Amino acid sequence: MSETTASLAATTTAAAPASASAIARGRRARIALRGLQVLLALFYGIASALPKLIAHPSASDAFDELGWGSGGMYTIGALELAGAVALLIPVLQSVAAMALGALMVGAFVVQVVVFDGQNAATPLILLVPLALIAWKRWESNAELLRWARRAA
Asked: Which terminal CB of the chain, N or C, has fewer other CB atoms within 10 Å?
């Protein structure tokens, strides 16, 4: 075996375990991100949308104070529920994260302007994992566009 071939063989052999390690890390990262999506979907579906959709007094009082009434409450609740479900659908996950992120920007503005920043940190905290999901699942947008073009 020549010197070049020997060094190439040594490099290839040394790279194989690193590659397997990288694959394992990537798999763990995908699983963790999917777990985060499930947790956010549960939060938006149960803790955020459900009180609005069943007109819980805590939600209806807040929307009455805003002047949006039950129509605004049901609309926001339905949007949150739709976003929660879409977070779990692979082709919609990035778009859902962006849409829920936009809702959180609106919620932050409302909290600051109307409620004097009482719970303004919550939408900002939720923006961080939503932005991560939108960024890491960006390739699903291309798949969604291909699907939409085929349907058209």
From this structure: C
